[in-house]
Amino acid sequence: MRILRCEAGAALVTALMLTMLSLVIALALLSTITMGTRISASQKRYRSALAAAHGGVELMTQEIIPRLLQTDPLNTTQDGIKNDLSPVNLQLPQSGCLQQKLNTPTNKWNAACSSSADPTQSPDVTFRLSGSVQETGFNVSAKIVDAEPGNSDKSFVELLDVGMSASGRDEVIHPQHVPALYNLSVQGVREGGGSREKALLSVLYAY
To answer: Residue 125: which H helix or E strand, with range?
Structure first.
């Protein structure tokens, strides 16, 4: 009995297998690099939108809400606030609702003021933050979605206690301080970017 042995073409098959394996490895590396580039670009877009949303929180909590809560009429007029913040094109489309939200609890809001928590639907405050020279800016919408007023002093007048000796006692009864609590929803969206570049923040602010 004769055993037939033919090794012709074995080198070609081996070369084809090695070539196929090399192509698979190259495609896997290319896919990894492409995916990493896309993730990096997505994170960059999100960080920019997140920075805009943080700017909206800072503006609401440090400028708009404190000034609207003050009892000094010269400093709390909405026109005065809008003029002071004209560089960011500040708008107060729901000015009546905003004042109501700042001074009354959520269960006493009018039906028109108690809409969804989406800050882009009937926002209390809108403004625009400029981007770099090569990029467009961001539109920021902010909204108070829940409120519980407290007893914080809104006069911003600091009165010193009457001087007394070391053994003296303060006979004035001070009520317990209960800060006002506001749940804010703030969203930053790139102009013309659709839904690709946006960030939404929910913040609990105590005044």
So the answer is: strand 125-129
